[in-house]
Amino acid sequence: MELGIKNLKRTGIAMTVLLSSTLSVQAQDTLEVWSRSGPQAAATYEAVFKAFTEKTGIKVEYLTALQFDTQLQARVAARDLPDVLIYDQSSMAAYAQNGWIKPIEVTDLAGYDDVSEISWDSVKVADGTSYGVPFSQHAQVTFIRKDWRENLGFDVPKTHDDLIALATAFATGDPDGNGIDGDTFGMAVPGTTNRGFFAWWMFSYLAQQGAHYVEGGEGKYEVTINNETGKKAVNWLYDAFCGDPNLAQPGAMTNASATPFFAEGKAGIYQTGPYAIPSFDSKIGKDKLELILAPAGPAGSTTLTERTSIYFGVTSKLPDAQKALAEFLISAEGQTVGMTAPGQPVVRLPVNTTLNGAEIYGDDRWATVATQLENSELFPSDIDFTAARLEIAESFQTLFSQCNDDVDAQLEQLANRISDELSALDALK
Amino acid sequence: MNQTGSASKPTAASTEGAHTPSVSRRGRIRSQSRWWSAWMFLAPALLLFIYFKFIPMAQGIRMSFQDVSPFLGNTWVGFENYIEVLTNERFHQAVRNTIVLGAGQSFGAVIIGFLLALLLEGPSRTLWFVRTAVFLPVVTASAVVGEIWRIIYYPAADGFLNKVIGLFGMDPIRYLEDTSVALYAVMTVGIWSSAPYYMVIFLAGLAGVDRSLYEAAAIDGARMRHRIISVTIPALRPAIMIVSILAAVRALRIFTDVWVLTGGGPAGSTQVWMTQIYTQGFERNNLGVASAASILLLIASVLLTFVAIYFTRNKEAK
Prior knowledge:
The structure holds 2 protein chains of 2 kinds.
Chain A: H1 2-25, E1 31-35, H2 39-56, E2 60-64, H3 68-77, E3 84-88, H4 92-97, H5 117-122, E4 133-139, E5 141-145, H6 146-151, H7 160-172, E6 185-188, H8 197-208, E7 214-217, E8 220-223, H9 228-242, H10 259-263, E9 267-272, H11 277-283, E10 289-292, E11 303-312, H12 319-330, H13 332-340, E12 349-350, H14 357-361, H15 365-374, E13 376-378, H16 386-402, H17 407-424
Helix pairs in contact in A: 2-13, 8-16, 16-17
Chain B: H1 2-18, H2 23-63, E1 66-67, E2 75-76, H3 80-87, H4 89-120, H5 125-139, H6 142-152, H7 160-166, H8 182-207, H9 211-219, H10 224-235, H11 237-252, H12 256-261, H13 273-283, H14 287-317
Antiparallel strand pairs in B: 1-2
Helix pairs in contact in B: 1-2, 3-14, 4-8, 4-11, 4-13, 5-8, 8-11, 11-14, 13-14
């Protein structure tokens, strides 16, 4: 009996020690930072934060989550948010609207002047308040298998017609020279509706055709995807997905990622972000790969701008450390480490205007990315576009997987859905 | 409480026998302490249950009546979330898909589980090996199963399954991309991974079938199918009932298979109730609506279980 009590006491003490040690893991002065990154990008972030800690003495506890939104929801429910979030610009408005992130007096940040005005504009919500600090920017670019193109005797595509001709040749011919026609595919397409990704990918091609999902600005938008230009643009894409041959890789509409199809030599054209450069170089080979400006459609070569920004969690008790980290991340030093540390560049092109991306990388392809960035557009991010983006991705996935020639009717339905979502936010013009 | 008292009597009596003085007083203290000592033993499990099951469930019910926004304050919206779920076209599609997938998958898995059990029943060493091999899909993580099947279903002509059907002169099928096929492709994976589980339950049931019944049937000249219909199936009735309930309840909550294989696509053709809840809650940040949908799922599961119990009871009564 006595032994039992002793044991119980011991267990109790052990439990208390265990519990207190678990709680004390998160020390008071450690800044908790989250990003949505794969393992390679995470390695680069680790290096960036290491440099930050060395410089300022502020410790960083870094967590990367691919299921970023799910994990963030859990922390929201616990009313205990990470101190700093580094994530896609497209999420900012939603976070701000839900009160998860703090408004930021951006002019108070050291190094404010070094960051481009267009970057600062991108972190404002409809009422003009800034909720983020810009960290990285790039435009989607077009990757092509140079060796495949040359095998089939094609020039670098300059127009949409060239692009379709090349994709068709990849899909029907034998660009990889294995003796079998038609076992390769034209384009790698990320048709997944996860996070509404398909809507982002389509944005570039639609813009090149002169079409937009919505048009407007400063918090008020008008749905334009169902106007004449919109219909024409969607029909053009429809032919690529539903014509014969199908130019996209098999499974384009349900693959979680299209990257492996390009990286493993199944598809010859891929429009994606330049963050893929290091991994394509190692998997395909630098000499077999080319990165080009988007082939022009009737309305030009515009592609999608993608931005990563820094947000401050509202529950944080470390406002000074939050600010210090943001200042470091936009400084020339922080930006350079983010580009050059081993792994995957987390700063794709610097937002800091004192830096030249292509020079730092020592790689001309990044100059192409910079040129493309000049000729690119941001998906509206001053309002919470998440619901509308999901509707767009789902509608086009439906259209391109059913291929039932119902383009105009489905576009009308989509336009109504987008209007509903926008009016729920009071953002309909 | 009575039960605890009576269950602990023998030990109480034996200790009383060993120590003579003040028997009655100590006995009373013991039996008084008994009622809470039972709860003490239950406490760890109960605490875990309360903390991880009942409190979240209560919270879920509350959230289903709210517009959830932890940082701006939740607002009561009455039955609005439920109305949203019940009138939302995507949820209607999800209900249809869940019913088709659930019914098909339960039925398929139970039948195949039963056939596997008949084939693999017996004490032989080789059978033991085959049974283990057949059981493997059950213990494999569903995310892994999904990825493996994505490879099997690879939609090009050189995909695994397409090569196999190509041997019979069939055209390649886009299993997970074709909106009219995707749901059945997911169903097949579900059957493949859950049938062995039911097989084990059936095997346990088969072990309890009286051998003399088979012998009697054989003497009477019954063929194989007669033996199965007239001897095996009636003897397995309790097992069949349990397996069917399990299968139906499991099918209602199907998530991982669908999520890994198709993510609910293409064009929502494999969108089921749980994937719709996930999308509403985590992608659209609509936790109130997601909670309402979860509560409806809970009600459906409870109702289904009651219906199943009712039918089992009726059978037993007969």
